[in-house]
Amino acid sequence: MENLEIKLLDKTATPPYDLLTLADPSEEAVAYYLDRGYCYVGYLGQTAIGEYVLLPTRPFTIELVNLAVDEAYQNKGYGKKLIAHAIGIAKEKGFHVLEVGTGNAGIGQLALYQKCGFTITSVDIDFFRKHYSEPIYENGIECRHMVRLTMDL
Ligand SMILES: CC(C)(COP(=O)(O)OP(=O)(O)OC[C@H]1O[C@@H](n2cnc3c(N)ncnc32)[C@H](O)[C@@H]1OP(=O)(O)O)[C@@H](O)C(=O)NCCC(=O)NCCS
Hints:
Layout: E1 5-8, H1 17-23, H2 27-36, E2 38-44, E3 47-58, E4 61-69, H3 78-92, E5 97-103, H4 107-115, E6 119-124, H5 127-131, E7 137-138, E8 141-142, E9 146-152
The structure holds coenzyme A.
């Protein structure tokens, strides 16, 4: 695996929109994350191949949102590297709890987050049916519920 260099996105730099919308197609949500969160971008040489955003939500709690790795670079361990980096940054900033959410149909994401040390703490029933106009399918399963996972830092 090539060395991944992870850097905080400069507020004046152009955000890597292709990666940001891979994780969440809603431009409105992406704009909200960029405005209120810390976006970290992973580079292989000059190429941005992944990113994530850390979004402070409540006192002592920060959420990992919008994690994405370019399709051409998936399943090579870069997602895990970005998560490990996010955990380090959240600790460094003094947060006590790191949260992440994913749909019930996101089998790979659920595996990845649990492998990285998150544990399921709640399920927001019918979150996607309530908030999205079209049904979402992943792995042949309807994505209905938001599964929330947590890690004590
Ligand atoms: C989710 C995402 C960021 C993962 O990035 P990645 O670089 O492919 O992830 P990694 O290669 O670091 O790790 C994937 C891990 O999940 C595991 N995994 C994936 N699917 C799995 C499955 N069905 N069962 C068991 N383990 C699975 C892999 O085995 C691997 O773990 P391992 O290293 O122990 O083998 C990437 O697929 C992506 O960008 N997806 C589109 C956007 C998205 O869904 N973002 C998340 C929003 S919640």
